[in-house]
Amino acid sequence: MSEQEHDTGGASRRKFIGAAAAAGGMAVIAPGIHLIEVSQANAPTRPPGEAASNLVRWGMLIDTNKCTAGCDDCVKACATENNINEKVADVRQGSQWIRKIEVKEAKGGHTFSLPMMCQHCAEPPCVDVCPTGASMKRADGIVLVDRHSCIGCRYCMMACPYKARSFVHQPLTGQNPEVPRGQGCVESCNFCVTRIDKGQLPACVESCAKAGHHAMIFGDLNDPSSEIARRIAQTATTQIRADLRLDLGVRYQGI
Amino acid sequence: MLRIFRLAVGVLSAVATLCSTGAVAGESRVPKPAITIENPGKCVAPVDEMRRNHMDMLKHTRNKTLREGVRGMKTSLNGCIECHASKSTGSVTGSNENFCQACHSFVAVKLDCWGCHQPQANYKADKATTALPADHASTAGAK
User: Fold this and answer.
1) pLDDT-based confidence at A17, cuts 50/70/90?
2) Is residue B51 part of a domain?
3) Could A99 and B143 be called an inter-chain contact, meaning their C-beta atoms sit closer than 8 Å?
4) Is residue A49 part of a domain?
5) Does B73 lie at the interface with A, CB-CB under 8 angstroms?
6) Cβ A85–B64 below 8 Å, yes or no?
7) Which pLDDT belongs to residue B41?
8) Would you say residue A18 lies in a domain?
C-alpha cells in the first residue's frame, strides 16, 4: 500500500515537472541546475563581411550510448550535403569525410558504434606537415584544406592519426555550388563550414537530431553557457588518442 | 630605272596584300571571342578594370573567404556566375560561346576554377542522384 502511494506520488511529481517544462520550456530541478529545452543553436551568426573569431572554438560531442550500430544517417547526410557521390574504381579510394566504426572491447565483449571524422585538433598534425600551407586551421578552430594551394602530396593523410582525410582521384562534376571539391586535392570534414557561417548546424548533426537519435551535439566550446560546454563540464567525455595531446574539437561520451 | 620600278611594284603589291587580308586594319587571324553578358550593367567594377584585374579580385576574395571566413563579399565567384552564365546552357564554361571560356581560350590561359567550382548558375544538385553509392564504404573498421 505504501509502495503504491509512493508510486502515485512519483508519477504526479513527474507530471508536474513535465507540465512545468511544457509551460516554461524550462524546468528547475534544484537551485542552479536547469533542464533547458535542447537549444543547439549556434552562437549568433556573424554578420557578412566579418572574419571568424578565435573567441569561438567549434566543437562536437558524440554520445555513443545513443549512437546505434548500423545507423549511417550522419554519413548519408554528409554525402548529400557535400555531394560525395562519385563512383570510384577502388572502394578504398572513395572519399570519406565521416564514417561509422563499430568497436568491440576484446575482453568484456562490450560493443559500441561511433562516427569518426576529422577531430579538428587545436594542434593539427596535418597543418604541421603540409608543405604548401594548404592544410590550415581557421581562427574558430575548424581545420580545413585550402584546395587552391593543395598540390595533392597526401602528406597530411599520413600524418593524421584518425584517418580522417581522403584524396580525390577522378575529375568531378555537379558539385554543390557552396562546396567546391575536385580532382587532385585532399579533403576532409570541415564541420560544414559554409553552413556554420550561415548559423546552421553541420549536416550530420542536423540529420542525427532529425532522425530522433540526438547523439551529436555541436556548439561553441569556449562559451560556458552553450549546451556542449555544459555537457562537457558535467559529464565524463573522452578525446580519442588523448595521449597525443592534440586538444581535439570532437569529444565522445560513453567510450 | 627598271630596278626602281620593280621595287615600287613589289612594295605596292605587298601593301595591297596586307590590306586585303586585314592585317593593317587590326583584325586578327583568330576570330575574336564572342562575349555575351546575360545580365549586363550590374558588374562590381568597370569593364577595363574587370578585364585587367578580375583574377586578383577573385584571389583576394578566395583567401578572405576560405582562410578568414569572410562571407558575402561582392567579388565572389558565385557572384560572377549569376550574371555571366549563358542563358542557353546555364554555364560560364563548356563552349567558346560561354563567358569565361570565350576569352580564356582566345588568350590560351588555362581555367582552373571549374575543376572544383560549380560553373552553372542557380545549380541545384539532384538529390535523387546524391544517395550513397554502393561503393562508398560508410562503415569501416572492426566488425
Assistant:
1) very low
2) yes
3) no
4) no
5) yes
6) no
7) 79
8) yes
